[in-house]
Amino acid sequence: MIMNTKMQMAVLLLNEFKQNLNSGKPLRISDIAKKHDKSADYLQQVATVLRKLGWITSVRGPGGGYILARETIIFSEVVKEFAGRKYTSCDRSVLPLMSQITSRCENLSIFNATQN
Fold first, then answer.
1. Cβ-count burial of 73 within 10 angstroms (0-12 exposed, 13-18 middle, 19+ buried)?
2. Contact 16, 27 (CB under 8 A)
3. Which residues contact 26 (CB under 8 A, 6 or more apart)?
4. Separation of first and last alpha carbons in the chain
5. How many Cα atoms sit within 13 Å of 113 on the Cβ side?
6. What is the DSSP string of 17-62?
């Protein structure tokens, strides 16, 4: 399976939010876009989907941005939302992107916020 651009950006955003978790401060999409040389408008579209799914929460006001709203995100959930189909078989080409690998992709966590 080849990851489409929206799925890649969703994984990128989720991993950025996970890495920022211990700081306690929200991340701004513009900062992530600059760091990875990506379109802020496109990342904002993906962040809006993640927020509507309840995976991230927006924080308003000065110093606002986004923070994680869930402790664990399963890779098959990301695929289902961004590829429009249930991912049922492991494709070894996507495994290096994941920080936690299990024997079945349905249980493959992109991250678990309680683990470093």
1. buried
2. yes
3. 58, 59, 63, 64, 65, 66, 67
4. 28
5. 18
6. HHHTGGG-SPBPHHHHHHHHT--HHHHHHHHHHHHHTTSEEEE-ST
| Largest interatomic CA distance in the chain | 44
For the stretch 58-102, pLDDT in tens is 999 888 999 988 878 877 788 778 776 544 444 444 444 444 333
Q: How far apart are alpha carbons 3 and 63 in whole angstroms?
A: 32
Residue 41 CA: distances (Å) to CA of 6, 37, 46, 51, 71: 12, 12, 9, 15, 26
Q: Which domains does the chain have, with CATH numbers?
A: 5-112 (1.10.10.10)
Backbone angles phi, psi at 67, to 5 degrees: -135, 160
Q: What is the pTM of this model?
A: 0.72
The residue length of the chain stands at 116
